[in-house]
Amino acid sequence: MLSHEMIWKAIDKLAERHQMSASGLARRAGLDPTSFNKSKRLGPDGRERWPSTESLAKVLEATGASLDEFMRYLTPSNHLPPDDSFPPQGSSIPLLGFAQAGAGGFFDDGGFPAGHGWDVVEFPAPIPNRANVYALEVQGDSMLPLYRDGDRLIVEPGAQVRKGDRVVVKTRDGEVMAKVLLRQSARMIELTSLNPEHPNRSFALEDIDWMARIIWASQ
User: What are the residue boundaries of the Peptidase S24/S26A/S26B/S26C domain, all occurrences included (predicted)?
Assistant: First the structure.
């Protein structure tokens, strides 16, 4: 049974995943910045205040999180991903080729690893031990001269992405690409190609499945 505490903890965890405070999450969702403050979770008479379904819908839309993802935060561990079949992340991280990444079943709606078929690679020493990071192996020459065939890009879904960051983007059509984020608005995303021989790309946000920041490259 859902409790008042579980719902609010799930909201806090979603904000944390997107590197925001509860008030920052409310602001991004177009709500009053104080909507999710701890002081607003109880009324003056001490009665519990629950977030409205409209507020939750706006939060999911603002973060790109699915309802399934939000529901996972309601588990006692409040930890993603919950799939026990997924390789544990300690001294090693999951590895997938770019061609495989375009197929279904390897990621959840937030771009986090899920399911079977992943290889495992030793965690590169220069990178801090972060949860949920994974590696994508470059295939082909579309990312030259920056990344060559066989290079491994360490990706962190859920990390804050800013203009100029190198990112991996997966479209709803299953196309996976590494680009540089040029501009992002409420409706569009513009990407610069790493290889000058390949065109820059623009997409409506609704056509993007997920976008994750590249935090390191094994070259």
Answer: 94-215
What residues have CB less than 8 Å from 92, skipping those under 6 apart?
120, 121, 122, 123
Residues 46-100 have pLDDT tens digits of: 888 898 888 988 888 888 777 877 887 776 543 444 444 444 444 578 888 888 8
The CA distances from residue 114 to 80, 85, 157, 167, 200, in Å, are: 10, 8, 12, 19, 29
Amino acid making up residue 192: T
Q: Residue 145, preceding bond cis, omega within 30 degrees?
A: yes
Going from N- to C-terminal start, the domains of the chain cover 4-72, 92-218
For residue 196, cis peptide bond before it (omega within 30 degrees of 0): no
pLDDT tens profile 169-187: 999 988 989 999 999 998 9
Q: Beta partners for 203? A: 189
Q: Which fold has domain 92-218?
A: Umud Fragment, subunit A (2.10.109)
Query: Is 4-72 in CATH node 1.10.260.40?
Result: yes
